[in-house]
Amino acid sequence: MASPHDAAARPRGRPAPARWLVAVILCATLLTMAPPASAALLSQDEEIRIGRQAAAEIEAEVGLVRDPALVARVVTAGRRIAAVSDRRNLPYAFKVLRGREVNALSLPGGFIYATEGLLRFVQSDDELAFVMAHEVGHVAARHHVTILERHFALALLARLLTGGDPSASQIADIARFFVTRGFSREFEFEADRRGVTYAHRAGYDAAAGLVFMQRLRAAEGRDPSQFEVLFRTHPGLVDRMQRVREHLRRLGYRIAARLFEARVSPPVLH
Length: 270
Ligand SMILES: [Zn+2]
Description:
mainly alpha, 3-stranded mixed beta sheet
């Protein structure tokens, strides 16, 4: 948006500097690119590089849990899911972040986190696998790339012009975006659909995803602070449950019978 300040600063009666002009043309190109052309702007290697830098930022800020049993649980489920996903050639990394919020997070390039709170909340590895599959689903659908191109076009433009990486403050902005703002409802529906599919393909009980959502919804009222981040970044749980239920039925699950099945067995550690 132009401001009076911009108009006053514009040089009069002479051509704009070439570098400035190149920036404007590139910027216009970025902003008018149709979605199918988006992959051309950010290569997979660049997506991974940005994701790795954002991951380092979040890990330094929030802190990692090193407990080998907890980490092994997340890595085992994550790797099984990634191996059957629609983007199997990424350097996926599955880690545990500190914090009592029940949440999971994914970054460009396949850097995926579960929180300690999530690991305490899930009642089975099938539930954990669904959450990891949902996050892998975001990565496989290139939702992060779309966000980067929509919201960080200027940071990416700077990278294109200089041939370098986004600055530290731009990486911090990107990391903050994925932690606090998350995705649109449509992207959440898509990640759920892929999550159910991948969990099923990997041999997990994909219906556990629906049980997980139902328990989340029931628990939300008991201790809202515990779910703060998850509900800010994963809106519309009731609509999502409806769609997950339909997708499970298409895969042959008999939901009505399974949904209320008691799940009291302790989590199995692999
Ligand atoms: Zn999501």
